[in-house]
Specification:
Radius of gyration of chain B: 15 Å
Number of helices of chain A: 5
Radius of gyration of chain A: 13 Å
CATH superfamily of chain A: STAS domain
CATH class of chain B: Alpha Beta
Strand order of the largest sheet of chain A: 1-2-3-4-5
Number of domains of chain B: 1
CATH superfamily of chain B: Histidine kinase-like ATPase, C-terminal domain
Number of strands of chain B: 5
Number of strands of chain A: 5
Distance between the termini of chain B: 28 Å
CATH topology of chain B: Heat Shock Protein 90
Strand order of the largest sheet of chain B: 1-2-3-5-4
Oligomer: heterodimer
Number of helices of chain B: 5
CATH architecture of chain B: 2-Layer Sandwich
Largest interface: A-B, 19 and 24 residues
Structural class of chain B: alpha+beta
């Protein structure tokens, strides 16, 4: 899975592309946990703009990182969910726990 | 249109995509809408993931069998494994019940809500077979009749 990321201050910005399933879930989990373990970042911005599909494996990986960040006092937010994947995130109740922003810069500044 | 595709694949995570794309390609031969094909992809993704993760405990050298049958506008998808099976199917099908803390237990919910029918047969120690069906256009029909 193409997974692009950058760190901005204490935030990890992940830009995911294409279809996110078990394979992407493992890669996302490995990347986020590695940077969190090494105290490189404390917050997570998940950019979904270029995602065309996601299933419950990826939702589980998202939720797992959310739980971890909440325990460690970090923040996790979403950016730009496309209309095609929105119903899946809604069904899983993701919007009840994660705030969504229109752009990465809004997410980083918290506006 | 009538078609039938049967595939046996290794129980590796990469084949979750292979399975859902294959089902989507068969579905696209009938009158399914783009949204309906997306729903089929999600349901197949969940079924094959369950076979790999729960059926086989992520062992990569086992076999997942996928059978996709199209008869006019009816799609029938069967996903079968010879893994550990499910002790309590009713319990496994409840949301938020998962044997893995990093998973949400939404697999069966997504299969049920995105397909017209879902049947699960399982024998502990012998394996699990999931059968799902969907009729093209049923979404619009449900909306039109208000049901």
């Amino acid at each position: 899975m193409p997974l692009e990321y950058l760190t901005v201050g204490a935030s990890l910005v992940t830009r995911l592309t294409g279809e996110l399933d078990l394979v992407a879930a493992a890669e996302f989990r490995r990347l986020a946990d590695d940077l969190l373990d090494r105290r490189k970042v404390r917050h997570l911005v998940v950019n979904l703009e270029r995602v065309t599909f996601l299933d419950s494996s990826f939702l589980g990986a998202l939720l797992g990182r959310y739980k971890r960040l909440r325990m460690e006092g970090g923040r996790m937010v979403l950016v730009g969910t496309p209309p095609t994947v929105r119903p899946t995130l809604e069904a899983a109740g993701i919007y009840a726990i994660l705030r969504e922003f229109r752009s990465e810069s809004d997410a980083l500044s918290g506006d | 249109m009538q078609n039938r595709v049967v595939v046996e694949m290794a129980s590796v995570p990469q084949n979750v995509a292979v399975a859902r794309l294959l089902a989507a390609m068969v579905a696209a031969q009938a009158d399914f809408t783009v949204a309906e094909v997306d729903e089929i992809k999600l349901a197949v993704s969940e079924a094959v993931t369950n076979a790999i993760i729960h059926g086989y405990g992520s062992q990569p050298d086992r076999v997942v069998r996928l059978e996709v049958t199209l008869l006019q506008n009816h799609l029938d998808v069967q996903v079968e494994d010879q893994g550990r099976g499910i002790d309590d199917i009713a319990l496994a099908m409840q949301p938020a019940v998962s044997s893995d803390p990093d998973r949400m237990g939404l697999g069966f919910c997504f299969m049920e809500s995105h397909m017209d029918s879902l049947e699960v047969e399982s024998t502990p120690g012998r394996g699990t077979r999931v059968r799902m069906t969907k009729k093209a256009g049923s979404e619009h029909l449900a909306r039109a009749t208000g049901s």
